[in-house]
Amino acid sequence: MKIVVIGGVATGMSAASKIKRGNPNAEIIVFEKGIETSYGACGLPYYVSNVNEDVNLLRIRTPEEFRKQNIDVRILHEVKEVNMEEKEVVVYNILNKTELREKFDKLIIASGASPIIPPIKNIKRKYENVFTLKTIEDADKIKEYLSDDNIKNVLIIGAGYIGLEMVEACAEINKKVTIVEMKNLLLSSVDEEISDIIHKKLEENNVSVRLSEAIKEMIGEDKVSQVISDKGQYNVDAVIVAAGVRPNTNFLKNTDVELARNGAVITNKKMETNIKDIYAGGDCSLIYHKILNKNVYLPLGTNANKQGKIIGENILGENREFPGAIGTAAIKVFDLEVGRTGVSEKEARENNIDYETVFVKAPSHAPYYPNQKMISIKIVYEKNTKTILGAQLVGEKGAALRTDIFSTIIDAKYTAREVSNLDLCYAPPFAYVWDAVQIAANVILSK
């Protein structure tokens, strides 16, 4: 059996490794257009800020390590075309500028996603000081450029996870940071109450926050010196574009592989596309949302790794299904922990769910142990049954890991009553006798 994998990071290498362990005789060829395989992309902002100074800690497994497993990893190889009838990929060797063709029995599309470049005048010029952050190479460029003490003013376009993490990273290395977001709130996966707390924290750390504002033009020759928006202008020494990501699927445009409107590959729960023997997963594909009961785009590393494992198991004949996800994610914003899982109020409203919400402040642990902090919790729940549908948490201590408790609660379809009765641990350093999760559930029950 000959398997070709397009993409050598999370999904692709998870699938390849799983197949090789289950079938050592399988021939596996991985085409990766970059120079790295299997690296911790979510750790890049902390490398830029020098929280982690060792870039090798980001490299989970190198191409050479995979080759020792008899997985044929070919970096700097970009797949340009897939011929479904011939079961063949057309590949461009970036290094020597040649083209090759490779047959396959099974194909895994794990091509990931690339940063969205907004329609800003002059942005496509090759400015020395305009960056995106997706790869270790990107992080190295940003880190080197910002190491110059004369680089003082950094403007960040986009207030999602990467944008906010880069705000902190730049502030940590003593840059003056401005963040500009087209929408009217920070971190659009959370609701206004949580976004407002993040907003306040940024301003406490001398970050200029500009919401409902769109960048229109960049001005400069080799470097951008000024950025023009629909509300003003900014003198800049560096710009980081963090306006979201788009699936890398252009090479599928002339095929019969079913794609969503944003270009993401559509699969079933076995991670199979509509074409026999072709699988897809990770940031280039949609994912089933358990609560919304439909496919959505959730480009998260957790999902990508799980999907890769499922693909590998199915190619080995194990007949596995990926049950789906609920969008569980967390982020650190200075000394705040922010977590979210399930549906937000905005998602519930847009999907015609009969819901109610509560917003609660509860203690991280008992008051008779030092450094107690308050956790702000917003819960979205089904109106009649009081089943928990979504939760968002923010606080200086205990918010992120409690998001995982809520994720489990939502996955199990627990009601507020069942949450109230959970047997959660209690000790003064870690929790109150009624945990913050249960305090929030009890507020629902009191309504």
UniProtKB/TrEMBL annotation:
Give the Pyridine nucleotide-disulphide oxidoreductase dimerisation domain ranges: 329-434
Which spans of this chain does the record mark as coiled coil? none
One GO molecular function term? oxidoreductase activity
Enumerate the SUPFAM superfamilies for this protein: FAD/NAD(P)-binding domain, FAD/NAD-linked reductases, dimerisation (C-terminal) domain
Pfam family name, one: Pyr_redox_dim
The cofactors required by this protein are: FAD
Q: What's the superkingdom here?
A: Bacteria
Q: Where is the FAD/NAD(P)-binding domain?
A: 1-308
Alphabetical UniProt keywords:
FAD, Flavoprotein, Oxidoreductase, Redox-active center
**Sorted alphabetically, which PANTHER family does this protein's record hold?**
NAD(P)H SULFUR OXIDOREDUCTASE (COA-DEPENDENT) (PTHR43429:SF1), PYRIDINE NUCLEOTIDE-DISULFIDE OXIDOREDUCTASE DOMAIN-CONTAINING (PTHR43429)
* NCBIfam families referenced in this protein's UniProt entry, alphabetically: PRK09564.1
Q: What is this protein called?
A: NADPH-dependent 2,4-dienoyl-CoA reductase, sulfur reductase
Q: Which organism is it from?
A: Maledivibacter halophilus
